[in-house]
Amino acid sequence: MKILLVRPKFFSLVANLEPLGLEYLGGALREEGIPYEIWDEFQAPFALRFTRLRRKIRRERFTAVGFSVNANTADEVREKARALKAEFPRLTVLVGGPEAEVNYRDFCTEGVDFVCYDYGVETFRAMCASGFDPAAAAALPGLARRTGDGWVCNPPAPPVSNFTVQPDREPMRRSWRRNFIFGKGPHALVKASFSCPFRCAFCYCTMMNGGVYTQRPLSDVLADIEALEAERIWLVDDDFLLNRERVVEFCDLVLKRGVRKQFMAYARADFPAEHPDLLPLLYRAGFRDILVGLEAADDATLDAYHKETGRAVNEAAIRNLRAAGLVCNGLFVVSHAATREDFRNLLDFIRKNRLLWVVFGIFTPYKGSDAYEEYRDRLLTRKAKKLDGLHVTIRPEHMSKLMFYLRVVLLHAATYPKLLFRILRGTAYDTEKDGWW
Ligand code: SF4
């Protein structure tokens, strides 16, 4: 047996990071002594990706291929599975990853042999260790398998609260020279919790891990961080700043153990808004970037998103983070219901609150999210590659599609030149500065 773990490439100008999910699967295969390789398509050009993949499978005699699938690569993975099976009939094809975890039945398709929707690595590990034995597969939770009578989907696995293996970080080391986040440099990834206890309408992170929020022991998280050579760490929890006691404990451990790293993490706006006293501690522990889901500048849109915050909370979050020297990276979701005035208000909000780092996504009802149920009949497209927050997937209510795109472009045109200038000047992290210098 020899397994190729593949991360399909998709268009991204803003980041090129390690395939952490596959690195954990690689760690499980390493422990089992099963030969494998992680094939990260992000490290190669777009052109001829499938030709390279086929050639690799043939030349190096892989017996199984496992795809990690996101919402925007779902069609491509289904198509590649079908084509690979046609060319290599004895090849075992597996599908897993975030999209398969939430919508596993969508991958019970031609060319696929197994779909893994286990929340950790244990089902995958046991299945590979058994040599894809059908009897073993029948007993594994979180696994769909093709049988003579069609597909059989085993019950989902229980939620996980920790990793059971160490990741194989070799892919990160190999591609470190190409690793980057726009304007921020290279980052290694660490995950300290699973899912999110909130339920914003557009978000499908909250559906992960069976919809159950769990936290890893901080001692394990710190051990992961200390084992990394990287200076900058992105804590990729869907919401790292959630529990006050845990955040304090994390910072205390970092300081006590003398960990000298720079941290970036996601947060909801209500945490920095309600805990300004904690932010200097975060700064001392090495936090610099907080990615805040501000989402919108008006209460009505925030309510429609079920965000449980408000404009005033957003403003307090930005203010408090700035006062502590922390960079607030404002993440916005532009609604299909936005009017011309809403676009103007959003820009006014950004200017008034002196936000420098901003990211704009377009409201997308991902399958599995609450919004999908609400908008499934209004979807303009079902093409997976359009599910990336960059495309209009619901007809804008107050303008043409073209004007909507144009206004999103104008949002970027109005905000990014200054950010670029400040990055080039080396002052993009100076939260006291306001102007172009
Ligand atoms: S948007 Fe953030 S806070 Fe809301 S459900 Fe998703 S991860 Fe949780």
Explain what you see.
- There is one protein chain.
- With 437 residues, the chain is of the alpha/beta class.
- It folds into two domains: 3-153, Rossmann fold; 179-425, TIM Barrel.
- 36% of the residues lie in helices and 17% in strands.
- It is built from 16 helices and 17 strands.
- The chain has helices spanning 20-32, 49-59, 74-87, 98-102, 122-129, 134-138, 170-174, 218-227, 244-256, 270-274, 279-285, 299-304, 311-323, 340-352, 370-375, 401-425, and strands at 3-7, 15-16, 36-40, 64-68, 92-96, 114-116, 143-147, 150-153, 180-181, 188-190, 193-194, 214-215, 232-235, 262-267, 287-295, 327-334, 357-362.
- The strands form four sheets. A seven-stranded mixed sheet has the order 3-1-4-5-6-7-8, with helices on both faces. A six-stranded parallel sheet has the order 10-13-14-15-16-17.
- It is globular.
- The structure holds iron/sulfur cluster.
- Iron/sulfur cluster binds next to loops.
Helix tally? 16
Q: Which distinct ligands sit in these coordinates?
A: iron/sulfur cluster
Strand content: 15-25%
What is the level-2 CATH architecture name of the largest domain? Alpha-Beta Barrel
**Structural Rg:** 22 Å
Please identify the structural class as seen in this structure: alpha/beta
Q: What is the CATH C level class of the largest domain, in words?
A: Alpha Beta
Integer tally of domains: 2
Query: What is the general shape?
Result: globular
| CATH-assigned fold name of the largest domain | TIM Barrel
End-to-end C-alpha gap: 57 Å
CATH homologous superfamily label of the largest domain? Aldolase class I
Largest sheet: 7 strands, mixed
